[in-house]
Write a structure and sequence with these properties.
Elements lengths: L24 E13 L1 H9 L7 H14 L1 H4 L10 E7 L10 E13 L4 H19 L7 E11 L6 E2 L6
Antiparallel strand pairs: 1-3, 1-4, 2-3, 4-5
Helix pairs in contact: 2-4
Length: 168
């Protein structure tokens, strides 16, 4: 469903999209991304022995804070009021001895509004993963962040979207 570029006016100037005529609807956006870490780094995260503290708790708060501040970071995003924002992490199973080990971050944003929260969810995931990197860089500078993408969205005129491909 190609609509063209919506952040430009007829003269080619960058503009914030006018959503005043849109209806308020319940909206949800979920984004996912991952960071790959060494097995030893994953163990420190899981056991709470990283020098900077509880890595996932700090990353969760950082991701939620970033999602809420998206309009301050992305120039043409509308400031949104969330009904909820969560950051969850999926860690590899203990029996999977893979090295490097992927940690998946999932940000889900829900709101009632005139515009969606896809960019907010992707911002939340990005900052959560960057926070993991920051907190663990002393023990693992080889970590790689990637596969950040919209996973699902619902609500609004464009309806439901669900990605049907594996992460990675």
């Amino acid at each position: 469903m190609e609509q063209g570029l919506t952040h430009f006016d007829s003269q080619g100037n960058a503009v914030m999209v006018d959503v005043s005529a849109k209806d308020v609807s319940v909206r949800m956006a979920q984004a996912k991304g991952q960071i790959t870490v060494r097995r030893e780094t994953l163990a420190a995260i899981q056991q709470g022995t990283a020098r900077k503290g509880d890595v996932l708790a700090v990353a969760r708060i950082a991701g939620i804070m970033a999602a809420k501040k998206t309009a301050e970071l992305i120039p043409l995003c509308h400031p949104l009021v969330f009904d909820s924002c969560t950051i969850d992490f999926v860690l590899p199973e203990p029996k999977e001895p893979a090295n490097p080990c992927p940690i998946e971050a999932v940000c889900t944003v829900r709101l009632s509004g005139k515009t969606g929260a896809e960019i907010e969810a992707m911002t939340g995931v990005s900052v959560a993963l960057l926070t993991i990197y920051d907190m663990c860089k002393a023990m693992d500078r080889g970590m790689v962040i990637g596969a950040i993408r919209l996973w699902e969205k619902s609500g609004g005129k464009s309806g439901h979207f669900l990605r049907n491909e594996p992460l990675g």
